Amino acid sequence: MRLRSFGPGLLVAAAFIGPGTIVTASRAGASYGMALLWAVVFSAIATAILQEMAARVGLVTRKGLSEAIRESFSRPVIRFLSLGLVAVAITLGNAAYETGNLLGASLGLEILSGVSSKPWIFVIAAAAFGLLMSGRYRLIQRVLVGLVVLMSFVFLVTAILVKPSLAELARGLIPSMPDGSLLTIMALIGTTVVPYNLFLHASTVQEKWPVESDESSTEQTLVESRMDTTLSVALGGLVTIAVVVNATPLDDVLSLGPLARSFFGLGLFVAGLTSAITAPLAAAYATSGALGWEHDLTSLRFRTVWGFVIVTGFVLALVGQSPTEAIVLAQAANALLLPLIAVFLLFVVNDHKLMGSFRNRPAANLLGVLVVLVVTGLSVYHLMRVFSLV
User: Fold this and answer.
1) Using CA atoms, how far apart are residues 277 and 86, in angstroms rounded to an integer?
2) Averaged over 136-153, what is the pLDDT?
3) Is 139 exposed, middle or buried (0-12, 13-18, 19+ CB in 10 A)?
């Protein structure tokens, strides 16, 4: 599969390999060694399952996920509540994520240049704003694909230089929950299985693959989309594993040697920049669909949504301090929101009226339900721990 054949799948990878992934995976490795690698593998598999469904919804219905939810829920009250939750949670949530994206990218540039991160926050925000303002999906995709390839190279090469123990890697694939690791496990899931990526994917596949004329053409497109999704998410999972192997807490990065510090800074910068672009874009797709607006990258309303996310993130980043704790907590909160969005997705992808012969098969439903149950179980257990019920 040639690099130019990749598309929306790599945008998804670009979105979830952000500063949240770098910080969370680094802390996981530093605190628990390889013991939580199983959580990364589970997260990658869960991401591939849910993203395939979201992409299929977009390709078959030619609608965004928000629009598909609008059409699936016939009762006005349920439709209003569900879409209102989507619009508020995704837009405000992504504005908060944007803060971490900008802080992470600017810290990466500070590590590389020695110049304070504050001026770099403006540079990163302006770069994301300018690229999205172009309104050219192909340009946005090419930039993000190139950045993902660069980021993957940096972290994978760094992990190889560390020379991890194969025995430890194998042991890390066996599920375990070391003392105090629950929040980190939830954060690893939350930083990989990202709810807003479901909305981003359902919309961007329509940009990559044009309207099909018959069922056989749609099936061929779905095959290409699945390949794109599987390989892209697998690459993202490998990068996350590489960060765990590197096991460099963000707070200790300055203690690294010059070469390793430069590699880490470059990776953190690219991760922050890619997510600083995709988070506002996903919010615009999700909110536009929920409110019944067209998905036109050049429309004023579409630009207003992503502009709000960037500006809010920029302001909060300027007044913010260290992003580490906020990023980890945000990823854990993400895992709490995920089950609800996943249930919406399962409802839509099983709608015979919308999906026809391309609706979920029993095996796909089983996998989707298992993902929801595992994430929900971890979320409920975490809340019970918070309120001292267990």
Assistant:
1) 20
2) 84
3) exposed
What's the pLDDT at 39? 93
Whether the Cβ atoms of residue 209 and residue 12 lie closer than 8 Å to each other: no
Distance separating alpha carbons of residues 40 and 238, to the nearest angstrom? 9
Closest among 173, 153, 150, 172 to 161, alpha carbons compared? 153
| pLDDT category of residue 248 using cuts at 50, 70 and 90 | low
Distances (CA, A) of 364 to 5, 66, 69, 240, 272: 25, 21, 19, 25, 33
Other Cβ atoms less than 10 A from the Cβ of 136: the count is 14
User: Fold for domain 3-386?
Assistant: Amino acid/polyamine transporter I (1.20.1740)
| Chain centre to alpha carbon of residue 384 | 26
Which residue from 274, 279, 223, 218 is spatially nearest to 90, judged by alpha carbons?
A: 279
Long-range contacts of 347-355 (CB under 8 A, 24+ apart): 347/69, 347/72, 347/73, 348/57, 348/65, 348/68, 348/69, 348/72, 349/53, 349/56, 349/57, 351/68, 351/71, 351/72, 354/57, 354/60, 354/61, 354/68, 354/71, 354/72, 355/56, 355/57, 355/60, 355/61
- List the structure tokens of 236: 């993202």
Amino acid (one-letter) located at 132: L
Residue 167 to residues 117, 164, 172, 175, Cα–Cα distance (Å): 39, 9, 9, 15
Helix (H) or strand (E) holding 74: none
* Contact of 221 with 212, CB cutoff 8 Å: yes
DSSP state of 342: H
- pLDDT higher than threshold 70 for residue 42: yes
pLDDT tens for 292-321 read: 887 788 899 999 999 999 998 898 888 865
- pTM recorded for the entire structure: 0.84
| Residue 292 confidence (pLDDT) | 80
Phi, psi dihedrals of residue 77, rounded to the nearest 5°:
-65, -45
Cα-Cα-Cα-Cα dihedral sign, residues 139, 243, 254, 257: negative
116 phi and psi angles, rounded to 5 deg: -50, 145
